[in-house]
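User: VOC family protein, Gracilibacillus salinarum:
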Amino acid sequence: MNKIFDHMGVAVRDLESSISFYLHTLGGRLIDRYRSEAKGVESEIAIIDVNGTRTELLMPTNNSTSPIARFIKQKGKGVHHIAYKVDNLDEAIKDLKRQGIRVMEDTRRINKHGRRLIYLNPADTEGTIIEYCDYPHNQ
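Assistant: Predicted structure for VOC family protein:
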């Protein structure tokens, strides 16, 4: 199954300052900005494109339940996850399970852009949070 880099998620404390850096210093373009209060997300998100490479800036909206808040508390701000686009998310999950790689079923969802996604268990990925995603409506 093909896997290509899709985006990087970055946990931030100050979304305005982070957007400014990505736009003015890196020359990026703001693609979208929205707030998600969905369980397991609870963040304000800005999607930035820098010369065809996307970064999601993730600022927690609930410091007691947001996984981004928990991440910042444990590890500080910075790279939260790396996402890989797969041809078919359902098939990719089956392939992972055949290899003994666990996925975090409670993270499976469809975001506002129609991206289906799930996170792999960091215990099986050398500690890196990895997202697999596909875009079934854009194919």
